[in-house]
Amino acid sequence: MDAEEFRAEGQTSAEVTIVVCASCRDESGSDAHPRAGERLAQATREVSRGKPVRVQQVECLGNCKRRLSAALLRDGCWSYVFGDLTEHSGADLLTGAELFTQTVDGTLPWRGRPDSLKRGLIARIPPSDFLKDII
């Protein structure tokens, strides 16, 4: 499905999942528990209560050089991976997720995105339906 088909099907306001890397350490590299990633996940859960957003943890996003990391996922849409977050980035992740729920083309809008989600963008990954075969 390409962006036009996505809009034609009227896919908006779909639930977004925020995935937080729970094993991420803070800038000091401390092994103390709970780890900074776990604290970010908890902060994100707290600010997301009552919102149409799911918050989940994963043990590792494999993005250790960029410290605290998280991803925004939505069925049939691009996925986004962010790094260089802080334990206090939960509100930024929620803002990004709320923007993402309103998209009509399956992408996270740049305008309105918090600075941490602009500077911290690691990758955006297309859904498999958007991929085209090479001939």
TrEMBL record:
CDD domains assigned to the protein according to its UniProt record, in alphabetical order: TRX_Fd_family (cd02980)
Pfam families: DUF1636
InterPro entries reported in the protein's UniProt record: DUF1636
Protein name (Swiss-Prot/TrEMBL): DUF1636 domain-containing protein
